[in-house]
Amino acid sequence: MQHGKYRFIVGFLAVPLALYALFVIWPFIQSIYYSLTDWTGLSPEFGFVGLDNYTRLFQDEIFWKSLQHSLTFAVVLPLVTVGFALFLAFMLNVGGRRRKGAAVTGVRGSSFYKIVYFFPQVLSIVIVALLFQFAYNPNSGAINSFLKAVGLGAIQPDWLGDPDLALICVMVVLVWSTVGFFVVLFSAGMASIPRDFYEAALLDGASRFTTFFRITLPLLWDTVQSGWIYMGILALGAESFAVVQIMTVGPNGGGPDYSTIVMPLYVYQKAFRDGQAAYATTIGVALLLVTLAFAAVVMKLGRRERLEF
Amino acid sequence: MGSTSAHSNEGGLGRRDLIKRSAALGLVSVPAMGFLSACASGGGKTNDKVEKGVKSDKNPLGVNETAELDFVLFDGGFGQQYAKDAIKLYEQAHPQAKVKFTPTQKITTELQPRFNGGTPPDLIDNSGAEQMDMGVLVGQKQLTDLTPLLDAPSVDDPSKKVRDTLRPGIIEMGQFDGEPCWMLNYAYTVYGVWYSQKALDSLDAKYPETWDEMLALCEKAKKKGIAPWTYAGKHPYYIPFSLYPMIGKVGGREVLDAIDNLEPKAWEHPAVKACFEAYYELYKKGYILQGTPGLDHIQSQTAWTEGKALFIPNGSWVENEAAKTMPADFGLAVSAPTGLDSSDKMPFGTLWAAGGEPFIVPAKAKNPEGAMEQLRIMLSEASSKNFTQSVKSLSALNGGTDGIELSPGLKSGVAALEKAGANVVNPRLQDWYVALQKEKIGVAGIGEMMAGRATPAETIKKIQKFADDAAKDPNIKHYKHQ
C-alpha cells in the first residue's frame, strides 16, 4: 500500500502550497525588497537605496517607542487576558461544588455567564473602541461620571489624554473585548478533561486552588499555549492598531506625546500619511521579526511533556 | 527621483546594483525583479491623455467636448451638494461631456493606489483627515501646474483673468517652490478665537484686546462658573489657530516666516516665548475647562456650545460642524487673537486667514483641461455664492457675498477680515510639514504644555529640536517663503 504515497501527498499539497507561497511568502519577500528602496507610495517610480531605511530605523526615537509599546502589549496582554480567562473558565466549569448531583460543576448561573462573557466578541473592535472612547471622555464620560456619583469627584483623570494612563486605558479595552473568546476556548478544553480526575482530587480533599494547578492547567496546557500565541499576535497586530488608532488622537493616532504609538500604527502613518511607503515596509519587516521572535519564545518556554489521557 | 539619479551618477548604482545586492541577499532572483517592480508600480507607463478640444471664447481652456471628467471630492464638513451643482453647470456648458463624480471620505485609501498605478482621477478635492501630503505630491512631481487656469478669463467677466478674481493668498498657497501653482484652495477659512456673543454679553464684557484684559475676563468667567477656555485636547494642533497669529502680532510676520522656513532658533524668538507663557498661564490659573486634554474636537466644541466654556481656537468650518449642538441664539462670533500689550509689532485684528479645501489635478490626469474648466466654473460668482450660502463658508473668489444673507459666524468672519485688512498672516507649517505640525509641535509639544505636563521653556526646546530634525531630514521636501 506504500507506493504512490508521496505522489498522493504531493498532489494534495501542491495547490495549497502554491497558494501559500503566492499570498503569504511572496508578499513577505516583496516587503523586504521594498524596504530597500525609496518608494513613496504616491508614484510608481522608485530607486534602490540599500540599507538606508534600516540605518534610519535605528536612529528613529519614535520607532523605538512604538517597539517598546508593542512589546509591552505582547507581554502584558496575553498574561492578563489568558490568566483572567483561565480563572473565569475554571470557575464556570469546575469552580462550583456544593451542589447536588454532579461532583464537578461550575458556579451557579455559569451557562448564563458564558454567554455574557462572549458578548464583546461579537462586537466589532471598532465599535468597542468607539464606545470606550466615549466612556473615557474626561468631561462627561461614564467613568468620570461614575467617580463623581460615588463621591470621588476629586479624582477626574484625563484617561486617554494623560500619557501615563493612555496605554493602560487602551490595554484594558483589549482585555475586555477578547477575554470572552478565551473563556469559551478554555471551557471547551476543560470539558474534554475526564471527570474522574476531578472526582479523585475531590476525594483526596484537594482545594480548588490545588485542583486548578495540579489538574486543570497541566491538562489544558496545549490550549493555553495556542491561546497565548494567538493573543500575542492580536496584541502585536490588527487589534492593537484598531484600538489605538480610533481611541487616541483621532485619525492619526499615537496618544499624547507618542504614549500609545504601536508598530502597526507607525507603519500606517508612514505609508499613508507621510508618503514614505518604503520606510513603512521597513518598520513592517521589524514587526515581522518581533512577531516571529514572540512566537518562538512562547513555543520554547511552553514546551513540556505531553500528558496522555 | 533625486536619490536614484544621484546614485547612478556615482557609477553604476541604481538598477544594476539593485539586482546585484538583492541576489546577494539571496532573497529575490533576477528575473523576479522585473515582475516585482511591475507589481509595485503598476506599470508606470506613459498615460494616454485625451485629445485637446478646440479653444474658443466659450471654451478658453480647450476642453475636449466628448471626454469624460473623473472628479473625486472629499465629502466632509462642506458636503457634496455644492460640487454636484457645479457639475451640472459643466455638463450644461459641454453637453456631450460626462462627469464621473465620486464623493468619499477616504481620500488616501481610495486614491493612493490609483496614483501608484498611474491612473489617478482628473480632479481631486484633497482634504480631510486622510488628506494626501501635499508636500510629497509636489515633491514627487505628481501634480499638474494650474497656471493655464489662472490665466484663463473668468466666467463672469471675460476681460478679467481668473487669477485677478481670487482672494489674497490663494495663489501663493498653491505655489510650493517658485512660479507654478499646484493646488487651488476653494474654501477660504478664517482662523481665530471663537465665542458666543450671548455668553460674552452675559458677562458684561467685550472681546479683550490685551492679555491683561484677557486674564481679567477669564477670572470673571471662572467666578460665574464658566470655564474660560477649552480646545480640542486630543488634537492640540487646533491651538495654533489662535496662537500662531498671536505670535505674528507680537513679534511680526518675520517670526512666523522663520518658523515656516525651519530656521535654526526660530522658536527661541522672545515673541514665541512670551506667547507660550501667556497660554501656559491659562492652564496655571485654572482657566481651562476641566478634562480638556482628553476631549477630541467634537467633544470640546460640544462642551463649548453647551456653554461650559467661553473661548475655543478654531476655524470657520466650526459653524457648519457644530451646527447640530449650537443653540439658535448662540450668537457665534470670531475674533482675531488677543495680543500682549501695546508694544506688539502688529495691531489688534491681525488674523490668520487662508485657503482650505485644496483642489488638485494630478500630473497623470487624462483630462486636465476638463478639470481646470470645472474649477473655473466653480470659481464663478454663481457657484461661489451657492457654496457660501449652503455651507456657511467663504470661497476663494474675492467678494461674491453681496446680496446673500450671511450666517452669524460668517458675518463675523467677514467683519474680522475687513478689520484685518492687510494684516493677514498665513503660517504654512500645516500644509508644508503635516507630521511636524500636527503630531510633533501640536500633540507632543503644545498639547503637553497646555495639559500642564511641560513648561514653556521645555516645550520650546522640544519643538526647536523637532524643527531642526525636520530641517535635516532628507526624506522631507523642504520649502521656503518666497
Automatic annotation (TrEMBL), chain A:
Compartment annotation: Cell membrane
Keywords attached to this entry: Cell membrane, Membrane, Transmembrane, Transmembrane helix, Transport
InterPro entries to which the protein is assigned, alphabetical: ABC_transporter_permease, MetI-like, MetI-like_sf
Topology relative to the membrane: Multi-pass membrane protein
Pfam families, alphabetized: BPD_transp_1
Domain of life: Bacteria
Domain ABC transmembrane type-1: 67-298
Main localization category: membrane
Keyword Membrane: yes
Membrane spanning residue stretches: 7-29, 71-94, 115-136, 165-186, 228-248, 277-299
Family the entry assigns: Belongs to the binding-protein-dependent transport system permease family.
Protein name: Sugar ABC transporter permease
From TrEMBL, chain B:
Main location (coarse class): other
Annotated compartments: Cell envelope
Keyword DNA repair: no
Alphabetic keyword roster: Signal, Transport
Keyword Signal in record: yes
PANTHER family: ARABINOSE-BINDING PROTEIN-RELATED, SN-GLYCEROL-3-PHOSPHATE-BINDING PERIPLASMIC PROTEIN UGPB
Similarity section: Belongs to the bacterial solute-binding protein 1 family.
Protein name: N-acetylglucosamine/diacetylchitobiose ABC transporter substrate-binding protein
Species assigned in the record: Streptomyces roseolus
Gene symbol of the encoding locus: ngcE
